[in-house]
Amino acid sequence: MLTGEESDDEFAKKVIDYQLQKEKIAEDYARNHPEGFVIISDRSAIEPSAYVGTDKVRSILSQFGRKFEDVRDSYDLVLHLTTAAKGAEEFYTLENNAARSESAEDAIALDDRMLQVWEGHPNRIVIDNSEKGFDAKLKKIILAVETHIKTRLGSKKKSDDSEYADR
């Protein structure tokens, strides 16, 4: 529980710990169900970097025996949904989302910091606002996920085929 005396760093540590636990539960569940699962999450253990800085998150992750780059690269696919405040300003409002508290300028700054957090990820796709409307964004998301899954299944099939060719 948050108190008025809790620092941003202490809160970030709790968020990271919670996220790592959620990911472990999901991964354990998927591992125990060989028919296959796709785990989709709207948060990651490194995203607090956008709020408290990458160095602080590196330090926190090391307390859990983890390295920033290893955690970053453990996600198979990263979809960065660009804030509506950047390129679709007419759709950015505080009126329709009680969880949204940032001004458009703050949302753009946070979006830029989040892009920096994910720099270097081997499979990051930025879903921008070049096409207007959230439906267009959803179509891009679905296409990216479908393409990734098909690619992964194709790679798995090839490795399965080569396994049998060796026999």
Main β-sheet, spatial strand arrangement = 1-2
Count the DSSP helices.
Answer: 6
Mean pLDDT: 88
Low-confidence stretches: 161-167
Strand content: under 5%
Indicate how many domains the architecture comprises. Answer: 2
Structural class of the secondary elements? mainly alpha
Give the terminus-to-terminus CA distance: 57 Å
The counted number of beta strands is 2
Percentage of residues in helical conformation: 40-55%
Q: Using the CA coordinates, give the radius of gyration.
A: 19 Å
- In N-to-C order, the SSE pattern is HHHHEHEH
Largest sheet: 2 strands, parallel
Overall 3D form: globular
Short descriptors:
single chain, 167 residues, mainly alpha, disordered C terminus
Give a description of the structure.
By secondary structure, the protein is mainly alpha-helical. The protein folds into two domains: 1-74; 76-167, no CATH class. The chain has six helices and two strands. It has helices at residues 8-31, 49-52, 54-63, 68-73, 104-117, 134-165; strands spanning 78-81, 124-127. It is globular and about 45 Å long. The model is unreliable at 161-167 (pLDDT under 50).
Structure in a nutshell:
The protein is mainly alpha-helical.
Indicate the topology.
Elements: H1 8-31, H2 49-52, H3 54-63, H4 68-73, E1 78-81, H5 104-117, E2 124-127, H6 134-165
Parallel strand pairs: 1-2
Helix pairs in contact: 1-3
